[in-house]
Specification:
Order of helices and strands: EHEEEHHHHHHEHHHHHH
Shape: globular
Largest sheet: 5 strands, parallel
Number of strands: 5
Number of helices: 13
Distance between the termini: 32 Å
Radius of gyration: 19 Å
Helix content: 40-55%
Structural class: alpha/beta
């Protein structure tokens, strides 16, 4: 039986990838990852990471145990905006705007490579002769956030909304990971069928920092946090402090159903959310 890890951009993909790398090293797992639309899976793999959870085959036809990582969509939006302003991902810094088919990565992100050529041409034209990142850097915060929500974050949230419950898959919140790393990872590996005797080793390789830096932010030094390009700050929940009331209303108008479906409170004023919406990891 294979293990499937369903991820979304800025919702734990890098964390899960690093955990799986370490499990491959100590347990001999043979892992794989799919960056774009998954039309099938390599049955020789122990674990498969679906980076954007774009599933083009019948999950029910493949015996598996799955874990889906989710995060408050408002924080996915903010984290995407902040990350895309500074990352060096090839699609984000691409300045090849040729519209001759086939249009592929890095002209478009992996998650959009399956789209129709007309869609890709329209996307490239909409960049106005600047890379995605250059567009974000040229815009003020309000316009930049709107640009991000109309594009990469919007695509991510659409993919999240398209998910259909899978009886063999559990949902794990990034916020829970940050609040209780050991307990959340234990829940994951137990669901994956790991023997109880192996769980301490699984936790140790992810958290101890003896061989490689701990993957738990609570155990990281300030220098380790600052040097990690995938981490903006120790706060996993940023939206109550960084989104204006108008921005909160905009994202909730567009994606409120998804926010609620994932179990997060909806309300354009952060004080209406339990605990003010803050959590740290």
């Amino acid at each position: 039986m294979q293990l499937y890890f369903f991820c979304h951009h800025k919702a734990g993909t890098e964390l899960i990838a690093r955990i799986l790398d370490r499990f491959a090293f100590i347990f001999g797992w043979n892992n794989g990852s799919i960056l774009g639309l998954a039309r099938d899976v390599d049955l020789t793999k122990t674990a498969v990471l679906f980076a954007h959870t774009l599933i083009g085959f019948d999950l029910g036809a493949r015996p598996h145990r799955g874990v889906r990582l989710v995060r408050d969509p408002r924080d996915i939006w903010l984290s995407g905006y902040l990350y895309h302003r500074r990352c060096d991902e090839a699609w984000c810094t691409n300045t090849d705007f040729s519209r001759q088919a086939p249009i592929r990565f890095p002209q478009v992100p992996h998650s959009r490579q399956h789209c129709a050529e007309d869609w890709k041409r329209s996307y490239l034209a909409g960049l106005g002769g600047r890379s995605y990142q250059q567009n974000l850097m040229a815009l003020d915060r309000d316009a930049g956030l709107a640009f991000e929500l109309d594009r990469y974050t919007g695509w991510t949230l659409e993919a999240m909304a398209a998910w259909r419950p899978d009886p063999d898959t559990i949902d794990v919140r990034m916020e829970d990971f940050m609040a209780d790393f050991d307990g959340t990872l234990t829940r994951i590996v137990r669901h994956c069928g790991m023997e109880e005797a192996m769980i301490p080793a699984a936790l140790a390789v992810a958290t101890s920092g003896a061989v490689a830096p701990s993957l738990d932010m609570n155990r990281m030094s300030d220098a380790q946090v600052a040097s990690d390009p995938h981490i903006h700050s120790r706060s996993i929940t940023k939206w109550p402090d960084l989104l204006s009331p108008a921005q909160m209303a905009m994202v909730e108008d567009r994606h409120g159903a998804l926010i609620q479906a994932l179990g997060y409170p909806v309300g354009s004023h952060p004080q209406r959310c339990a605990g003010g919406g803050r959590a740290r990891r």
